[in-house]
């Protein structure tokens, strides 16, 4: 898992590489591409979240792992992300299994990653980037798996709330994170009572470049990600 465990993909693009380096890579690429708009608006009507009620148990950590197992069954999702800190950002990330990502930021930058191929749109022009970012991407569905949760402590169920119009169970935890505590945070996650999937995550960081991160998930939004084509 990456240092900032809550959002590895965005951190790779905007913290590890940095906006200036991404712009340089895009501008030096010699392979422009045009957008296939008919494909980018396709729907995934067959993507149905797992059904069945989710209920807290005596083991809060096991509850979150159960949620992660359900999350892994999804073929696609959309996540709206808002961060505060040295590099504040508002962005939307879309995912289609097994290895397709689209990131759109409030600044107008758009990035598509399909397997080992990365495309970036800056100033209305799509370009194939000369480096691959796939090896740095961690599947967001695996954020709360057993490997990632070995950094979690004080995991507890704190009650039920309504969030975004949905009934949810709320869990809190401390995430030390690897790397000598870089990205250490205190977090809360809201899990839908009807389907056992994450609705929202809020993380308040004790170290690293982020102060706060909020992620809101949409599992029913139609998502299709295709490469820009000539």
Describe the structure.
- Helix 1 crosses helix 2 (19-28).
- Strand 11 and strand 12 (210-218) form a beta hairpin.
- Strands 1-7-6-5-4-3-2-12-11-10-9-8 form a twelve-stranded antiparallel β-sheet, covered by helices on one side.
- The chain has 230 residues and is an alpha+beta fold.
- It is built from four helices and twelve strands; from the N terminus they run H-H-E-H-H-E-E-E-E-E-E-E-E-E-E-E.
Short description:
16% of the residues lie in helices and 38% in strands. It has 4 helices and 12 strands, in the order ααβααβββββββββββ.
The backbone outline, from C-alpha atoms, is: globular
What gyration radius follows from the Cα positions, in whole Å?
Answer: 18 Å
**Beta-strand percentage range:** 35-45%
Q: Count the strands? A: 12
Helix count from the secondary structure assignment: 4
The low-confidence runs, each spanning 5 or more residues with pLDDT under 50, are: 1-26, 37-49
**What is the succession of H and E elements?**
HHEHHEEEEEEEEEEE
What is the residue-mean pLDDT, rounded to a whole number?
76
Q: Structural class of the secondary elements?
A: alpha+beta
Largest sheet, order of strands side by side? Answer: 1-7-6-5-4-3-2-12-11-10-9-8
Biggest sheet statistics? 12 strands, antiparallel
Instruction: Give the helix proportion (percent range).
Output: 10-25%
Quaternary status of these chains? single chain
C-alpha end-to-end distance: 36 Å
